[in-house]
Amino acid sequence: MRRMTAFYWTMAVLIVGTFVPSALYLVLYAATGEDACLRRARKLWDFTRVLTVFGFNILIWGHVLVGLWRIWFG
User: Fold this and answer.
1) Half-sphere exposure of 26 (CA within 13 A, CB side)
2) What is the DSSP letter of 1?
3) Quick one: the chain helix, strand, coil %, rounded to 5?
4) Is pLDDT of 2 > 80?
5) pTM (two decimals)
């Protein structure tokens, strides 16, 4: 249980750590019109989506595997 809590905190920090800069660069793009800000916002948003899907999949499949383990061996 402790390992999964650490995993969830790590994923939350990574997701928020890529989402917030993405939003800030999007605001910078809206204010300045710099294409570099838009490219960076898109890249960070892509990383945010990948990390979110990865964390969600680990969450679901982790529960499935634990449930199957308990059915078969518990």
Assistant:
1) 11
2) -
3) 95, 0, 5
4) no
5) 0.83
CA pair distance 49, 53, nearest whole angstrom:
6
Residue 65 token pair: 């595997």
Burial 28-61 (b: 16+ CB within 10 A, else e): bbeeeeeeebbebbeebbebbeebeeebeeeeee
- Ordered alpha helix ranges (H), the chain: 2-32, 35-73
Give residues with Cβ within 8 angstroms of 72, minimum separation 6.
none
Is the distance from CB of 57 to CB of 7 less than 8 angstroms? no
Backbone angles phi, psi at 33, to 5 degrees: 80, 10
Q: Per-residue pLDDT tens for 19-37?
A: 999 999 999 999 999 999 9
Over residues 34-54, the pLDDT tens digits come to 999 999 999 999 999 999 999
